[in-house]
Write the structure tokens for this entry.
Amino acid sequence: MIQKWSLVVLVMFLNMQTTVAQVLMEVPLLMELPGKESLVHAWYDGESFYIDGQDLFENLKFSVQISGSKLIALDAHHRYEFDCAGVQANDGCKLPLHKVLDQLEPMLYFDETRLHLRASSAATMFENRSIRNHSPSWAEVPGPHLFGRNRKMWGGMMASWQVRRDQFGVRPSVKMTASALKGTVEGKVGNGFRWNYSYDWPDQSWLTQIKVAHLGQGASMLSFTNLPLIRPRLQHFREITGQSAPHALLQAVISGEVVDQVQADAEGKYRLHAPLWYGSTKMQIRSQSLGGVEEISRVIYQLTPESLLPPRKMYFQGHISQDIRRLHLQYGLYPKLTLQTELEQMDQRLRISSGAILSPLSYLSLHTTMHLPDLDGELALQLWRPSVQVTAHLRARRHKLLNSSLTASASRGAWTMVVRGRQIAFGGQSQRLSIHPELWLHDAGGLLVHARYEATRTYRNSSEHRLYSGWRVATGWAFSQARVLAFVNRDRFSHLFGLEGFLILRHQSLSFSIGWEAKQRTPVVSLSLQASSAFGSLFVQSQRDAHGVTHSQHLQGSIQIGHDVTVSPYGQLESAVELRIFEDINGNAIEDPTEPIIPHIEAQIYQGSWTRLRSGSLYSSHLNPYQRYQVRLLEDSIRDPSLHPATGMDFSFTADPGQRKIITVAMQRLIPVTGKITNIDRAPLRLQIRVNQKTTSDIYQDGGFSLHLHPGEYTFAIVDILTDEILARKTVKVDPLRFHFELDLKEDYP
Amino acid sequence: MVHHTYAQASLSVTPAYVVVTDEAPFGSFVLNNQGTEPIEVVISAHFGVIASNDSTTGVVLGEAGQLGDLSAHLTFFPHRCILSAGNEQTVRYRIVEASNGAHITLMHFAMRERGAIVNGQIPEVASGLSIVYNLVAPLIYLQGQGIPTLSVRPLGHASHAIHLSIENHSQWPFFGGIRVIQDGRLLGRAESAVYTRRLVKIPLSEPVADQSLRLEFDTDYTGLKQSIQSQLGIPDPIHLVWE
């Protein structure tokens, strides 16, 4: 009897064990939120899914409280309470997924086939702005910003010089830009001496630059502004709403990159956010309905004029000198409307101007200004459409039109048509109207035909008038390096026909014109030559016409004084960078005299170009001061496989004004550190090796690991990525040779 | 409830072979995981060739005829890597202090899927279940100039193809085309790389009329640089007679 009861108890005990034990298979779910993807811990027991409640709701930007076996998720408008299905070792809370979906559907959609949790774009309960607060790569220059603004008492100088000789005499002049006194000094010598000193705060928003200047003849000036020194690329984020198939996947794509992705709601409504840059933005909206139906796409073009400020930004520019005090204010009221006003006091007289910049349509921009107390009004209109451009200016005073101008151009294929018109009033007594239509044909074979007509009518006392007209026809062959045209010009002063053209060789160019002036019965000849050497550029021009013979010569170049002295044939160079990639033999990341520059390592600079100097370093000039530039070292060009750049393959720098910035990239020889983990009691994929509590590296399936490190002492820890538990720890010294060691999960248990 | 996950690993290595010279004794392979699973790749270099016996062509390790062993003169980085789906890794190599002649090593890329993390999985079972995929890319280094010496043995011919066994007796590999000529007419051409011995099938435009053929060689080999083609000379033509 006792044996029978014992058997029953044993069977009941075993039965209880099998019913209580729950076999859970871990299935990480991919969670797709608008603009963000992340993995959420989840489990599957063969029937139901369970999800890590804390993980889920924190990803959805809720505040999470776990008390006992309850999880409470809160935000400003919602409160959800769930019973935990099982408390995890790290005080987490498993929630049955169907209970979560019961409360959050249709905002949260679970795709069991793909193991995806997807938040609908129509979800209003999720605070999308906080989800979007990650910095998108396309909004600014990516890569770590390793070389920022460099301030020095003396950081070098760039001087551009020119000497001009013509019928008015010889006129030398020098312009200088120097990085000095922790700011920028600019100077100009020639027809007097002028200088200014500016100090900047490129990262500030309330004041970015102050400038003091000596203007010559005893005059001086102070100016201050908060205009951004770094030219902004992004004007604003545009919201694109629309209707598609229910639950369709919508993507906004710019230059091949998906900038936003959402899922339409059950009614097919969606809301995408996309960046709008200054200049033109071409955006493609792709719609893929559920079930693999063919993708539909449409293209949106947007053009944002540089003069429009980002919304809710206010910029000022102040100017104080002996004669003038001026304050200019601009405010971006809406993405397409910028208000501006200017107060100016000059000779005890106050002048107020106010106006607006408006872009009501994507391709239309309007500038209006009203000046008080003169009641002068100005209106400028610009219209861009594919192949068509129109620009118009109107200026009026007290209801009277003072002057106006209109330029319209249209092109199609090889044909271009330009029409210019102008009206000018002279004191209310007379006015002049002129119109200049022009037609160009330039076909792919190089044939060029140009025809121009101009007519000018002058009115005096609203009755008397005169009409002048002229025309020009030219035809010939035109290519990028050479052009020759036969032409006929006829107007009220001259009747001229002849030949003109140019030829561009590598560093030299020649342009000429030779003709016969029929009215004056005289030949007309002009010849100009440009030649460049390593030290300077020379322009020589000679001309003979009805008024006689004239000659002019112009010599220019630039000198840079800093790390060394270099000369260049080009004009003013505001900012430059020299990239010195050297082999860091002693590993101190400082370029020592015995450490050579590696001349064959190639690099890319975005929005710039390199020249290889004789020293082997790379050099790029004509950079925009304060602008960030991205550099990528080309891995294929690094011949020695054990050399690694201390900067990483990608980094960015800020171009300093008036300075040749020297960036040193230390190529360091790293030690290959390999090893193996022994006595592994779980799947090796769960393990990671953590070096000095900073960097981590994955473990291979055979328990091996592979790292590349500098010589030194390191603490290696083996971590279970699912539980964050440290399983082993060992401190070893890495020698400057290939290094191998083992970590035993039993012996090296911390 | 039934769940399906579709994931697969796929590794591509470019280029498929490399011939470098002492003018630029360095370069790189690019590994690309085109699949949807993360993979781990172990990279190693072994002395050996791709060669044929009487029936098949495959990897032969430890010997390469008269070609030298490049493994001792080679450094490369990295030796192993983990590639997430869609990611790529550059494997850079450099050759130092190799003597005159041609040297070879086989770059071996052993790929294994990493799969999903499964709680409670036994480690030995996990690694035992995964399949290792192997890719081999020959890396050949040339110092100096030379002409390969070839001998050919006919293995047989069908109406529209001829089967040959080509043997290399020199320290220079052969990369190029083998042209079959009969009575001054070109009957067919095939490209091959012959390090030691290689079975070659040459498709013919018409059946062979008699038992005498002339084989001519050229150095046009797909992907081989012109400068390297000129470094390896053209072997002498061979008259082929069989019973």
